[in-house]
Structures are given as C-alpha cells and as structure tokens.
Amino acid sequence: MRDPGSFRDPSGYVFTHAGRVFRAVEDEAYRNFLLLKSSGAYDALMERGWIVAAEEASSDEATQTLIHAESDRLKVLEHPRVPFISYPYEWPFELLKRAALLHLDVHLLALDFGLTLSDATAYNIQFIGIRPVFIDISSFVPYRDGDYWDGHRQFVEQFANPLLMRALLGVAHNAWYRGALEGIPTADMAALIGWPKRWLSPDVLTNITLPDRFQRRARREPNQPSRQPKPLPKAALQMMLRRLRRWISNLAPKDVGPTEWQQYERGNLSYSNTEESRKEKFVSCFAQNNTLACAWDIGCNTGRYSQALLQNRVRSVIGFDADLNALDVAVARATADNLDFLPLFSDAANPSPGQGWAETERSGLHSRSRADAVIALAIVHHLAIGRNIPLPSVLDWLVGLAPRGVIEFVPKSDPMIQRMLRLRRDIFDGYDGEQFERALTRHAAIVRRLELTPGGRTLYEFARQAGGD
After folding, report:
1. Is a pLDDT exceeding 80 seen at residue 66?
2. pLDDT tens per residue across span 131-143
C-alpha cells in the first residue's frame, strides 16, 4: 500500500506490505543513493545513528513479485520500520529542537562527502524513543559548488520559527503547527516578534526580518526582474549551517512559571506517599504479568508511571499529555535514564486528526499504530468533568485503544474534583464508581481492582472481551 503522505517528491515514494517498508525511486534518485553509499556518507551517518537504514530490496521471489506488482520500472529500497510515526506538531519543545539540530548535523556531514540536502522538511525526521533519526534517503543529492541552500526558508518555518514562539513569546507551537502543517510562516513570526526584537538579534535579523522584507518586496513588485545571485562558496554554506546550529542549540522555553502538572508528583494533595507507592506497584505488577511490546500512557505527566512500565519488562512506551512543561520533564527523565519512552503532546479530547491532502497525508493519532496496553491514570475525571465527555464514552474510547490496561477512577469526594467543581455547577449525576464499573464492563472484564484509600481513588486492570474493538 502506498503511503498517503509520500507523494510530493517526484523522485519516488514509500509503500508498505506485510509490515515491511519500501521506497520506490526513479533512476536519478537511485544514482544519488549509490553515490551516498560509495562516498562513505551513508556509513558515517549510520555509525552515528543519524539515518534510517536503506538497502536494495532482497532478490527473493516473494519480494520481487511484490515489487513488480507495485512498479516494474522503479528501483526499490527497503527500510526498517520506525516503531511509531509522530509529527512536529506533537513534539514538545526539546524534541523539535533535537530534530532541528539533527537536520543540520546531517546536512553538515553530507557536505563533507560532496552531498547536500534537497529540502529541509521537519517531516523527514522521526523518533525512536527520544532519539531523532533522518528517514528520507531521497533527500541526499550531489552538491554543486556555488549552490545555495534551497531548504533555508523551509527550515526556518518548520523548525526555527516554532521554537522561537516558545523561546521568545512563551507560546507553544503545537496548535498553530497542527493547523498550518507546513510550519509557522516567516511573515507571521515577524509580526509576532514585534519591531524592536526583529532588529536587535543578528540571528532573527538574518533568518526572519530580512527574508520577510524580501518576500514583501517581491509581492509588491511581481514583475521586477530577479537578480542572478552570486555563487555561494561551500565554506559560506557550512558557516551558515553552523551558525544556525549555534542559534538553535541556545534556544530554551521562556519561563512562564511552573504548571500544575509539571509539579504534580511533588504537590498532589490527593495521594500520600504510601498511596503513590501502591499505585506504582499496581502498574509494575500489571507490566510484569503481561508480555507487552509497546504501551501507551494517556496523561503521562512527567513520565513516572511510563518509567515503571519500562522497568518491568515493557519494551517501549508512547506517552501523551497536554501540559508541555510536564512533557519537558518527561523528556529529561527519558534522557537521564536512557528510556525507550517517547513523550508527545496530545489533548485527549482533541487528538491529532487525519489531515493534509485528501485528509490522509498526515494520519490521525490512533490510526497510526496499535498499543499492546494502555494506562490512563488520573485522566478520566478531566475528560468526564473537565471536558463534559459522558463517562461511558470516555471508557469506550480508552478500552478501544488497547486489549488490556489500567484505568484510575477518581470519585467526586477527591480534593482534585472538588476544586474542579468549586466554580461550576455539578451537572454530573452520571459520574460515580458504580456507573464507571458498569461502563467499563460493557466491553472489558475487570481483572484486578485496588482502592488506594477506602472510598477514594481506585485502580482497575481490565482485559478487553472478545468482540471488542
């Protein structure tokens, strides 16, 4: 099946079959691939773990039959499958920054071997855990002395501008990026930064202010003949990339104060230390009692319970949360402890949809992969009471994500819910423990149940029944 997001590059496309990933390439792209291999660049990139592997498809009969059915005139390469596809609008600040730095590092190394990158789209980066990897082998093309970097504007709009939004303004890039898909336009970024800052920073001046002025002038004078640019020496291009790298590496989120969920572990009034330990033990036992390749942690906060899963035989965890400060802590946790844990931005009540061309270019979150298990701790009440989603709908959705998992129920008497209801009328007659269990058991069996405190928060391990989604 052809990947619906792989159509913009005329040199080839990606298709999948039986869990395998192939790339069909035209003759010129195939020659560029051979140059990538023969130049030594491929081996250097692979040694650093910077690119996904690519080899000519095997010659066995089944593979060749598949290839000829797909296309008998294109050369075909095969890649290992990336475990989970994510997009720039789902990456927290630190992951977008790592992706930007990798893109620049790959480009600089390619130049050392006489190659360059034909574009600078952020969608050419994926993550394995928190490690970024470059996936588009077709982007490597021969470098010609004097060439400019065609991808500069694309890099700025898809990497630098989104990072600057949070670094300079304290505004997250995620919602805007999801709406625009191609990044934050330079004209919009210049307007957001404001007049003084446009001119005070040399990096902002070079990458945003002046390009914005040139673009405006070109729109005002569409018939003005363009000047032939002078050749750009290779050393100047390398200096430009290194300067961009220094700039990006020094960007950090603007401090707008700690968020509630960033401090959740230290400041949560709903748990004692003993209850926290019992909760972690419950999650750990769940992981030990099941063979799980990948689990999803819905509302992962800083990643404490994701780490508990990983320390108890789960191979990888994808975490989702809407608090970007908490996700920053989760990324730091995964880095410090070398965890196979990918924390992503996602509002559970408004997850990433299928969008882009024909509404399929970028896949919806839950159509990309299936988890072996899901944990949803202290999230149900935020959806049912905080977002007015009926309790049965919340449980149907969670049980539909994975065949087994752990869900936490928080009663109305809990301090957190009391605080949520302080300034609004309680219209949630359908929210209680009995109705929670009734909704859960419509599609799943309760395997274990643990009250953290008598009449208080309760953990449920479930197993989806045959016939469930």
Report:
1. no
2. 999 999 999 999 9
Give the H or E element holding residue 458: strand 458-464
Same domain, 116 and 168: yes
User: What residue has token string 């299928």?
Assistant: 354
By C-alpha distance, which of 337, 272, 269 is closest to 302? 337
142 in Cβ contact with 90 (< 8 Å): no
Q: Which helix (H) or strand (E) holds 125?
A: strand 125-128
How far, in Å, are 245, 247, 389, 395, 406 from residue 401 at the CA level?
Answer: 39, 40, 17, 10, 12
Per-residue pLDDT, 95 = 99
Q: What is the DSSP letter of 137?
A: G
Under the banding of pLDDT at 50, 70 and 90, the label for residue 23 is: very high
Structural domain count of the chain: 3
In a domain, 310, yes or no: yes
- CA–chain centroid gap for 389, Å, is 25
Q: How confident is the model at residue 339 (pLDDT cuts 50, 70, 90)?
A: very high
Domain residue limits at 239 = 86-256
* Cα gap 206→198, rounded to integer Å: 9
Burial of 378 (0-12, 13-18, 19+ CB in 10 A): buried
8 Å CB contact between 399 and 464: yes
Q: What is the CATH number of the domain that holds 431?
A: 3.40.50.150
Report the half-sphere exposure of 361 (CA within 13 A, side-chain side). 10
Query: pLDDT higher for 353 or 72?
Result: 353
Quick check: helix, strand or coil at residue 132? strand
b/e map 251-270, b = 16+ CB within 10 Å: bebeeeeeeebbebeeebeb
Residue 344 lies in a domain: yes
The pTM of the full predicted model, rounded to 2 decimals, is 0.93
How far is the C-alpha of 148 from the C-alpha of 120, rounded, in Å?
13
Residues across the chain: 469
Q: Can you read off the two tokens belonging to residue 233?
A: 């020496």
Tell whether the model's pLDDT for residue 89 goes beyond 60: yes
Helix H, strand E, coil C: the string for 34-61 is HHHHHCCHHHHHHHCCCECCCEECCCCH
Longest CA pairwise span in the chain (Å): 78
